[in-house]
Amino acid sequence: MYSPSVTVSDASAASAPARGVRFFWGLFIVNALLFGSLLVALLLMSHQPASSLSPLEAETLRTAVLTRLDGTVDDPLVEAAPGVFVRASNTGGLRLNGIVYYYYIEGERNFDPLSRGMVDHADIDIVLRDMSGSRPLIIYRLRH
Residues with Cβ < 8 Å from 103, sequence gap 6 or more? Predict the structure, then answer.
């Protein structure tokens, strides 16, 4: 005996799970893309320096370092190595708005923590790279 209604209901029942599986995998892919994008955004944000300076803060910091280097601001000389005297701010940094900043001039002998090997590049955030002088001035702070 032939029963077409049973055959039709079997066919529709067989396609329902296939649609459910496709829907599940589609939803899974959408969620994976969404959370993957969120993860990438968070990783990119975490690698950006937390110390982004406004133009006014950058200029204030640049001026603070340059006035110490040229002697305009009293910054006593200290002996960094036998017979080598440098500004105290070069070895100990300078405090501005409660944050200690360190600096060095590329291509010169420096005695800041990074130049002396006391910290690694992974331990610092470069907050300013000033290319206006004859040699680049790099200002950074330590990560906490």
Answer: 65, 89, 90, 93, 94, 112, 137, 138, 139, 140
